[in-house]
Write a structure and sequence with these properties.
By secondary structure, the protein is mainly β. 0% of the residues lie in helices and 63% in strands. It has strands at residues 2-7, 10-14, 19-23, 33-36, 39-44, 47-50, 59-69, 73-79, 84-90, 93-103. The protein has a four-stranded antiparallel β-sheet with strand order 2-1-5-6, with no helix packed on it.
């Protein structure tokens, strides 16, 4: 059984007992339970359910395992012969979520 959920502007294929890395959820801490109700598709033994746009009464529940920041990405902008240079670093915050159950 698996499902496709939408969170943080991205879509993820999730299965029970699998950890996924998602965009940081505001107001949530490590150890808390989360529920994703924006389920786009569910596949189980009985068949396939595709939502328009979301599957009604489908909920994917999980637990936040880790909250951290990704590796640094360096952005360097410059204009030749103008002496214009800009060096920027960015670390994107993320959360690791362990999927517990898919209710459909």
């Amino acid at each position: 059984m698996y499902a496709i959920i939408k969170t943080g502007g991205k879509q993820y294929r999730v299965e029970p007992e699998v950890e996924i890395k998602i965009e940081k959820l505001t107001g949530k801490d490590v150890g808390e339970d989360v529920a994703f109700d924006r389920v786009l598709m569910v596949k189980d033994d009985e068949g396939l359910a595709v939502g328009r746009p979301f599957v009604e009464d489908a909920v994917v529940s999980g637990e936040i395992v880790e909250s951290a920041r990704d590796d640094k990405v360096t952005v360097f902008k410059y204009k030749k012969r103008k002496g214009q240079r800009q060096k920027i670093g960015h670390r994107q915050p993320y959360m690791k979520v362990k999927i517990n159950d898919i209710d459909y």
